[in-house]
Amino acid sequence: MMRTTQYFITFFVQFFLINSSDIVPLDVGVHLFVDEQYIENMTSLEFQNGHIEKDLDHPLVYPEYPWEAAVHFYNSFLQVPSNLSTTGAPMYMIYYACVDSSAIIYNDNVSVCVANSSDGIHWEKPLFWYYPYTANGTKPAQATNIVFTTNVNEFLGTVFIDTRPGTTRSEIFKMSYENEFVRYVYVATSEDGFRWKAGIKPAHPLAGLSDTQTAMFYSSENGGQYVLYGRADWFVRNSSVYCPGANPAFRRVMVTTSSGDIYGPWTIPMEAFALGVPDPVQCFDNYNPAALYYYGVYFIFPSGYWHWPVNDSGAPIPLAAANDGVMDIRLAISRTALGPYRFPTRDPFISRGIGTIDPKTKLVNGTGSDRDAGFVFASSNGLMDPDFIRSDVGTPSAWMYHIYWGSQTTHAGGGTVLGRYWPGAYSGIFRARLRREGYVALSTLVSEPTGFGEFISQILSLPVKKNGQQLLLHINAEIATAGGLAVQFEDGLTRNPIPGFTFDECKTLHGNGIRQLLEWKTRNGTYSGDLNPLIDYPNGLRVHLQMTHTKLYSWLLSYV
User: Fold this and answer.
1) Strand duo 24-25 + 460-461: pairing
2) Residue from 326, 416, 421, 331 nearest 376 by CA
3) What is the pLDDT of residues 479-498, one digit of tens each?
4) Based on the domain organization, do 274 and 337 belong to the same domain?
């Protein structure tokens, strides 16, 4: 009778206190530490932008031909698998807006040029006769790397591979772009990424949504959906008398989704993130909702834009002078496409380079400044993974790269007559190196003298057991020489340490690596990382992680 009573008490406690909906299931694979997704509470920890290193000495794309005298900031990066590549091998591609030195993008059509690479270091600009170039309208025609054109003052958005089931090969490559005077989003299609067929009607019914540069891709969320980022009027002015003469900025970064096809039906566009405190309200704007879907997380890389008063611009065209200033790239994240998106910090993710302002023209000096000192623009789908082109990835590369555009001019020079307004001013597309899975880090506090921080997770469950295989947990963390990281598993209900997986038994990590194995001391004195004894743990599990002088980026659950 007593055993029966104890059974019902245990059942009662578990049923009413540990509901299955309260348990967060962990699957095998990489899990990013970009937010509080797995965390119930934490102490002396904060989320920070990951460290990134620019390489300005080795641009990937820069002006080489007369039809691309201006390599403009609208650019999109793409990783093409071998089964879709024209070479039969994995390939990287960069699409970018380009015009010759005589063009003013407010008055002229804008071309889309392409470059491709098999290794991410050496880039080729393939020449076609799709859009031949005739200098001054009189010189002999030349083959070009132009693969598409947009109308006057309308621009490239994003090129992506459409992974929606049932997509035909002839339309597997898609390109969002601006079209019509009121700036609808259109979508062009291609079977190989080089020969494009223009869209026949707006993909989205909202006029003006394609302002600046649209970002678009297909994600696995909600069983599969198209996600579209743009900018649209919110009818609340975002600049005032503090920016005399500047065009008032009404537009906000917006996001909308479609579970149907590229023509919808689309959800009502939502503001991705609110402007205002802690950002300045006056004279400040966010351009370019460049986006990336990575390990189930949505990243956007808006360019924070500080608008100058018209008298602070040296641009020769009034329309450009009223829309001038400098920008840097920031980072916001969300677990769902419709947000809201959160900035780990309002500091730049990729800052503009060091430069001086010319006292006469007020533009960044092109001769004595970094190549990206004026403003920077993230590439849409801008992650370049070196492992993408490797045939055997036994050990993943420690580094990956984010693609972005930079220039020595400010927005007015870059947006109007980049190819001739500032002779010698640089514009190009660069790569910046960051740690694998390293867009955001959960970090101990610099202000904490001991460097100590910890978190306790929500109640978690481990993946389903695989017979004959060990379930291991690897950590991607930068641990200082004076630091360390240890993990204890605790009962989800009682919060008591689980014997065999306590701090005392954990082999403390002290390394700086992307796949550091966690292990615990066994009864025979050896160490093991096998988590099989914790699978299907009755009350669920809590992970209690303690670290000192550490930046934690991700963990990886895998069977071996």
Assistant:
1) parallel
2) 326
3) 999 999 999 999 999 999 99
4) yes
